[in-house]
Predict the structure.
Amino acid sequence: MSLSKRTIAISVAAVVGIAAVSTYGLVSSAGASQQPAAAPAATPVDVAPVVARNVAEWDEFSGRIEAVERVEVRPLVGGTVTAVHFKDGSIVKKGDPLFTIDPRPYAAEVARTQAALTAAKSRVAYTTSELDRAQKLVADNAIARREFEEKENAAREAQANLQGAAAALDAAKLNLEYTRIVAPVSGRVSRAEITVGNVVSAGGAAPVLTTLVSVSPMYVAFDADEQSYLRYSAKAAQGAKTPVYIGLANEDGYTREGAIQSVDNRLDVRSGTIRVRATLDNADGRLTPGLYARVRMSSGAPHDAILISDKAIGTDQDKKFVLVVDAANKTSYRPVVLGASIDGLRVVKSGLKAGDRIVVNGIQRVRPGDAVAPNTVTMDSLVTKRVVLPGAQPEAPATPAEAKADTPAAPTAKAEAKPANAKTAATAQRLPADRA
């Protein structure tokens, strides 16, 4: 009996011990769960203050370079080409010889008409003297009136034949002159389409011997839309001049300045555009007819504007937005209305104000309300290609301190290149959390 009581006592003690241990574990877990969770680490991103600047907005068009004068050189007389006096693609001056057609047949024609003119002159002298004698005789009634009129008519015919012979001689000399084909304008000549030894003919079906285009000045022709035409025509009516800047396909900026030369007299109703032509200097001879040209014209007076980099702009369905960083380094969603691109930066018509800081690199890794570790850079440091207009002063080189500030930190660049995981990359394509 005593053994049984002892066994029961041991069992009760064991149960109480286990219960005590369990109670201590629950209390410990509850205490641990009441401790505050650690805050998530701030995401490193590049942050830049927006740029407030006085800017002039521009309209851009696509055009083609055209020659002011273009001539297709054709023969005016037929014959055999005996000489070519230029090298293909060379620059020639007005009056320089280009081709020679065999002049011997035309020289012979000049000699023949010269002889005919001499004979006509002799005939005029003879008939004139005959008429003088007849006038004296008819006064004394020594000859019949009919005979006098015949001599008078012969003198008139001789004078007419003299004029015809002189005209034939002029035509023969002109044809002889046409055998020497010269440049009608100064410019660059093309290749010789007809070479020495070939026979050419004159007339409307005459072959093109070569082409010649003027070099300077040049035209640039482009099509302007209706709204631009109305805007610029209103400025022109007020006497304001609109500068035109031209850049070639291999140039980042606009290296040449021109002036509007003419505007077409009607709008193309099919395309809603009107043809505009500007003139520009080509002293260096680099411009060639047919080259593609980028045309830029000022669309209004300079005004104050907010500028940001395109790298900072996100897309929310049909809207554009940026992430603004506040004083506590937390991001917030901000829709913006964008304008034209100026010198590599985008005009913000509404949504931002001077002094705002926005995320410019790493926008895919953060969401509105997230804390960030900002690496401050300048907005201008994100511009890869800056538009340069003729006569613009070159920018001063950045100081070492500015260069250091413009360079993104290495950890940020590394994080930008490689997202944290696939979920983070997928999140970047979805709508921000507070906009879902």
Q: What stands out?
A: The longest strand covers residues 331-342.
